[in-house]
Amino acid sequence: MKLKTPIPDRRRVGRLALRHKRPRLHPPSSDFGETGRRIMQGSFVALGLLALTAGCSNSNPTAGPTNGPFEIVQTHFLGSLWSEAYAKASIVSQDGGESFVVPGGAIWAFGDTFKGSRSATGKPHFAGGAFAPAIAFLAEKAKSYPPAFDFLVSSNLGGVRAIDFLPEERPTDRYRIWPLGGIYVNGKYYLYYSLIEVFGTGSWDFRGLGSGLARATNALGTYERLRPHGNWRFPVEPTQVIETSDWLYLFSIQEFDGKQGVGLARVRPEKIEEPDAYEFFAGAGPRYSSRKTEAACLVNHVPGQVAVAWNGYLQKYVMASSSDFEHPREIRLLVADAPAGPWSAPVARIIVPKRAQGKRVEMLYCTYLHPELFRENGRVMNLTYSLGLKDSSFDANCEMVEIEVKRQN
Length: 409
Known about the structure:
Elements: H1 10-13, H2 33-42, H3 45-51, E1 70-80, H4 84-88, E2 91-102, E3 105-118, E4 124-131, E5 134-139, E6 150-151, E7 175-185, E8 188-198, E9 206-216, E10 224-225, E11 233-234, E12 240-243, E13 248-256, E14 259-267, E15 279-283, E16 287-289, E17 299-300, E18 306-311, E19 316-321, E20 330-336, E21 348-351, E22 355-356, E23 359-369, E24 380-389, E25 399-407
Antiparallel strand pairs: 1-25, 2-3, 3-4, 3-5, 5-6, 7-8, 8-9, 9-10, 9-11, 12-13, 13-14, 14-15, 14-17, 15-16, 18-19, 19-20, 20-21, 22-23, 23-24, 24-25
């Protein structure tokens, strides 16, 4: 029986801490088992979250072209990331896809990942359940499309989660772990994550328990959850982490006065493992505070997720934001001279085609920049995004778009 998409209660949704999942509009095949059923239950939150009037004010971005430091002169929609690399890891579909540069290449982290195989015609055959997070290494020289991923796999070559549950998180089907932003610093690999608890059988019966930080000594290996002072929770939930000469800057989506916008935190690289060392953007100046309660909105009207990367060609930081219900196929690009801004209004927009992977596109989410794939110093930029497809069940994968930009005089 098909599930009906609920009409979200905005007041209830506004209290939820989860901001980066999409709805799965149809139940999984029976061979998904309990894990697949649990994942399906929680995924409806994205509809409600994107329905929020996002931002720190009531202002909306203007439609059509905007004035800015660059224009998009060419857009190439490259299609699904699924390839033989997925088949080798017995992966049928997944979402997410944020990445961070590591020696020799980059690590890509994915959310809900479903096991199985595909026929010669591309038809999915789900088998073996689902897991999260999945990670893959993309070698520096692997610039061709689709990306030649090397997934983290078990001894039987099937994909496995990169971050495991703690002993007290049993039974594990009550929980799942979604990846956030990552960073390579101090000779170690770090990946932030969110822990989710499912407490009932309804579409809304789950909650975020907090976010933490995991560490690895091998890029494509298991990431250990850090527990400073016996507590795994960290005060940040970043979907993007960038490094400057002195600081790590962490961008996240937060609620400010009941509306969604970009929050910013920073920490010294050598103190990344110390929760009390994080500071929070507290207003223009910029000002920072050690108290998260004093955090201020950095950029308004940015729902879902946020990605930030330095662009050498533009000599600007570029921010990419996912769409909302009013603009379900739109990616917005903003710019700034420094991580703390001030950030511009959207200076360019990308409209995703109406159809992808043989289905109608109903929404997109998890838009991420991939500077490891930028060409010509950033004149050509690569982004990926996840899709909500009509009548697709769990059969959807991330897609990539390549854009060529031109500086404005």
